[in-house]
Amino acid sequence: MNYKRILLKLSGESLMGNKPFGIDPERVNQYAKDIKAVAESGVEVAIVIGGGNIHRGLDAEKGGMDRVQADYMGMLATVINSMALQDALEKVGMKTRLLSAIKMEQICEPFIRRRAVRHLEKGRVVIFGAGTGNPYFTTDTAASLRAIEIEADVVLKGTRVDGIYTADPEKDPEAVRFDNISFQEVYAKNLNVMDMTAFTLCQENKLPIIVFDMNKPGNFMKIAKGESIGTLVQ
Ligand code: UDP
């Protein structure tokens, strides 16, 4: 395997599968099987999930809601998604721990870095819920931050697109995928990989990012083995 410890970021929307909202159990089960395969091959896996399938702070603010209130709701949405994935992982026989940035003792452990690392060393799949625990941030930033804190080798951004393109491949048929790209080039070409806070955090801490298509079964394993099926930013 190419990595010892990885952080996988999944968007909330990816959990919707083909449904218009909420959580598609089929999609979550596919992710659980893919994660199991990688974790059982000896790679330590930590996960951050977004909440966009349920609630987004910025959108709610546009509708008139107080931004901070709306962001806390978004963070709670990530815990719901995390619990869904935790359940699916346990159904396929994985040992898991959900650690939340906002205390909810009946449901999950509080986020404590040393405890997260210990769980990973014991082979448990660790899910980080509630983002960073702070409003005005995103779960991409939570993914970068947690990856740095637990000294992950890489952040894997699992999306429905198989990498970073010269233009939006869903709109422009001429768009070409990059196999490799530098942080500088992403800035210079104004490409959308993660939000700026998340992206800069990775750059400043020399944490590589790989964007890949998580919806194709088996892809996560290929990435973990070091196959070049996405875009590597470093
Ligand atoms: N959020 C937040 N702080 C964080 C992480 C998330 O306030 O550290 C809120 C924010 O309102 C965001 C929502 O949670 O819109 C859902 O997260 P995100 O938009 O990152 O989810 P994704 O787009 O990955 O599904």
Question: Can you lay out the helices and strands and say which pair or pack?
Answer:
Blueprint: E1 5-10, H1 25-40, E2 44-49, H2 57-62, H3 67-91, E3 96-100, E4 109-110, H4 113-121, E5 125-129, H5 139-149, E6 154-159, E7 180-181, H6 183-188, H7 196-204, E8 209-213, H8 219-224, E9 231-233
Parallel strand pairs: 1-2, 1-6, 2-5, 3-4, 3-5, 6-8, 7-9
Antiparallel strand pairs: 8-9
Helix pairs in contact: 1-3, 5-7
The structure holds uridine-5'-diphosphate.
CATH fold call: Carbamate kinase
The helix tally amounts to 8
Tell me the domain tally: 1
CATH class: Alpha Beta
Characteristics:
alpha/beta, cytoplasm, ATP binding, binds uridine-5'-diphosphate, 9 strands, globular, transferase, 8 helices, Carbamate kinase, 234 residues, nine-stranded mixed sheet
Explain how this protein is built.
The protein is α/β, with parallel strands linked by helices. The chain has one domain (5-233): Carbamate kinase (3-Layer(aba) Sandwich). Helix content is 38%, strand content 17%. The protein is built from eight helices and nine strands. The protein has helices at 25-40, 57-62, 67-91, 113-121, 139-149, 183-188, 196-204, 219-224, and strands at residues 5-10, 44-49, 96-100, 109-110, 125-129, 154-159, 180-181, 209-213, 231-233. The protein has a nine-stranded mixed β-sheet, sandwiched between helices. Strand 1, helix 1 and strand 2 form a beta-alpha-beta unit. Helix 5 (139-149) packs parallel to helix 7. The longest helix has 25 residues, at 67-91. It is globular and about 50 Å long. The mean pLDDT is 97. It binds uridine-5'-diphosphate. Uridine-5'-diphosphate is lined by residues 11-13, 50-52, 56-58, 70-71, 74-75, 77-78, 131-132, 134-135, 137-142.
